[in-house]
Amino acid sequence: MRGAVLAPLQQRGLTMARILFSAHDPAGHTLTDYVDAGNAEEALASLAARGLANIRLHDAADMAALRDDRDAVPASMRQQQAAFELRLQTDPGVRTFLTELFRRNRLWLAIDACLLLWGLIGGDRVLVALALLFLALSLLPPLWQYRHAMRYDRMLRACALGQWDLASTLLAQLAAGSRKPLLTFDVAVRAACIRAVRGDLAGARAAVEAWRTEFDAKAPGMVDQRIATVCHAGGDYAGFVEAMRAAYSAAPTNLTHRLDLALAEARVGDPDAVPHLLAGIDEAKLPSFGRPFVDWARGMLALRHGHPEALAALGRATQGFLEYAANPAVWSSLALCSGAYALALAQQGRPREAQAALQHVWPVLKVHGDRLLLTMLRRELKGALP
């Protein structure tokens, strides 16, 4: 079936992606699944044609196209796997994984528990041993595989908090155990960010540039977007904006690159470029986690122009990021946006509220904050930072 859809999409020059979505079916029930489409517009049209409403996409199409692992999910498991992936976006910890593991194995675990109880009551050591062995065989292999995800989560936390030695060690372990090109690239980029923080920006940029032949054809602009991340880590804000412009130029129809550029211009670039960029963004086509970035860009633009509406926009953006606060991948964005929100509060004569907004994000903000933002916060709050 997927091949039948793929052919016309390829004829139009689109790459097939299996995009995660949630929606309401005609009966009003929540449906979480994947839709095969070439881009967000195709996905929304396909889902609307099925009579679905309140559609929310949870992937960028270009990144979903690189998720070959989704092809291996059996049709009978697609909705369960999709719901699990969606939960991982907001709560990617061990608890979510264990809950899903027990849910999927609940029948066999119930049988095993009965056998274990029977063996204990009857004093049958062989039955107890077999029940424990079965339990171990059911749980230990997936937990052993999940160690990579736990290590990745620890790495994200270490990077967010500026614990560079720990992050470097974890990244080396992840690189040694990775067999997926997308993960290997992500690990290489994060290692390059640490290299940039430590002063070797040129070497860090070159390390990411080496991946261009691997990804330029599959995901145009992605390498430039990650080079921008490296530049920001190294304090090269001009290079950060320049690389975001290159990413957008490589894929001008990619809404993620367009939004990334709008935010970069609003934060440290040319604010006059922002209205045009934002005007070309249809928020319905963005992945759900991308929507707070729109308000962040709007708020930053208003903040740089000294307009009072900055406070409302940055407040909405901060609230949007807080929905993903359990995910350490979002911590730096949450901290930066919260910092801008605190600055808007301070500039409107509300220093106590500004301090409260900074209280929990300051350990991350002081590591990743733009120099100008941190300077202005220190000036407005006059030493009253957390």
What share of the residues lie within helices? 55-70%
Provide the spatial order of strands within the biggest beta sheet: 2-1-3
Average pLDDT taken over every residue: 91
Number of helices: 21
Beta-strand residue percentage = 5-15%
What does this structure look like?
The chain is mainly α. It contains 21 helices and three strands. It has helices spanning 2-11, 40-49, 61-64, 78-90, 94-104, 106-122, 125-160, 164-177, 181-197, 201-209, 212-215, 222-233, 237-250, 255-268, 274-279, 291-304, 310-322, 331-347, 351-358, 362-368, 371-381, and strands spanning 17-24, 30-37, 53-57. Strands 2-1-3 form a three-stranded antiparallel β-sheet, with helices on both faces. Helix 6 crosses helix 7, helix 16 (291-304) runs parallel beside helix 18 (331-347) and helix 18 packs across helix 20 (362-368). The protein is globular. The model is unreliable at 1-14 (pLDDT under 50).
List the helices and strands and how they pair.
Blueprint: H1 2-11, E1 17-24, E2 30-37, H2 40-49, E3 53-57, H3 61-64, H4 78-90, H5 94-104, H6 106-122, H7 125-160, H8 164-177, H9 181-197, H10 201-209, H11 212-215, H12 222-233, H13 237-250, H14 255-268, H15 274-279, H16 291-304, H17 310-322, H18 331-347, H19 351-358, H20 362-368, H21 371-381
Antiparallel strand pairs: 1-2, 1-3
